[in-house]
Amino acid sequence: MSDDGSYEERHRRGLDVYRTIRSDPSLDLEQTAQGMASVMGAIASFSIDHVLGDIWSRPGLARRDRSLVSVTALSCLGSEAELRTHLVGALNHGVEVDEIEEVMLHLCGYAGYPRALEGMRAAMAIFAERPDVQRSLPRPAAAPKDDEQRQRDGAEAFGQIMGWTAPPEVIARTMEERLGPLGRFAIQHLMGEIWARPELSRRDRSLVTIVALIALGRVSELRVHVPAALRHGMTREEIDEVILQLALYLGYPAAVEAWNESREILAALDETEPR
């Protein structure tokens, strides 16, 4: 990102990002931007110059990750038109088809099945429009697991999230004692079926989870998932960039609340686990 703080440089950066999202080499970007502004006014010019030129152009988060942030947030919001645009951008930024599908599957556990299914339908529509996308049918169903396997896999995933080293049966029993059948199904389904899948890295699952929690206003759960994200390979700077980007997709109040919560979490970590 250039240190040039001029409007012209910011506008240029925004058009550069817009080019990678749209992926239409025949598109006259400047003319398209002017056309959008002539119809929608300042909101269109801000979308290019601020959303893309200011935030998306920051080097603290890879464009692939920024696509994951946007796709997750828009899926949680149910913003289908914008989601379709960013699904195209995600493919252009290196997110694989299987990874996009896995994001939607992951959201079953955090945004609920109806919202996740809407996102999956939008993704399938984009895949069908892209001749370069190789998506074989039929798609593989989830591998069947008995309850013992689900508990074992779920306890392993949850233990890593929490930084626990207890045996699987102890972790599962602890969760059921705390939350009853909800705790048991959280271990067996959310952890043992979803988090245990290899189609998306634990690091990316943590990123998607943090975005979903903020989008849904569940910032208290960040106390579990911010430390987990660090254990899974995200950096503090990347978490900050996620929250900064969400200011433009969810609004500044949601981002400020998440920022303040994350500062408390990180301060507490520094007391117990000094860097």
TL;DR?
The protein has 275 residues and is mainly α. It has helices spanning 7-22, 29-40, 42-56, 63-77, 80-92, 97-108, 113-129, 147-162, 168-179, 181-195, 202-215, 222-231, 236-250, 252-272.
* Dominant shape: globular
**What share of the residues lie within helices?**
over 70%
Q: What is the radius of gyration computed over CA atoms, rounded to a whole number of angstroms? A: 20 Å
The CATH topology of one domain comes to: AhpD-like
Number of strands: 0
The CATH class name of one domain reads Mainly Alpha
Largest sheet: none
Q: Distance between termini?
A: 28 Å
What is the typical, i.e. mean, pLDDT?
Answer: 94
**Number of helices, where a helix is a run of at least 4 consecutive DSSP H or I residues:** 14
CATH superfamily of one domain: AhpD-like
| Class per helix and strand makeup | mainly alpha
Low-confidence stretches: none
Strand content: under 5%
Task: List the helices and strands in order.
Answer: HHHHHHHHHHHHHH
Please tell me the CATH architecture of one domain by its name.
Up-down Bundle
Question: Can you describe what's shown?
Answer:
- It is a single chain.
- With 275 residues, the chain is mainly α.
- Among the domains are: 1-25 and 39-59, no CATH class; 147-272, Up-down Bundle (AhpD-like).
- Helices cover 74% and strands 0% of the residues.
- It has 14 helices and no strands.
- Helix 6 (97-108) runs antiparallel to helix 7 (113-129).
- The mean pLDDT is 94.
What is the secondary structure topology, with strand pairs?
Blueprint: H1 7-22, H2 29-40, H3 42-56, H4 63-77, H5 80-92, H6 97-108, H7 113-129, H8 147-162, H9 168-179, H10 181-195, H11 202-215, H12 222-231, H13 236-250, H14 252-272
Helix pairs in contact: 1-3, 2-3, 4-5, 4-6, 4-11, 4-13, 5-7, 6-7, 8-9, 8-10, 9-10, 11-12, 11-13, 12-14, 13-14
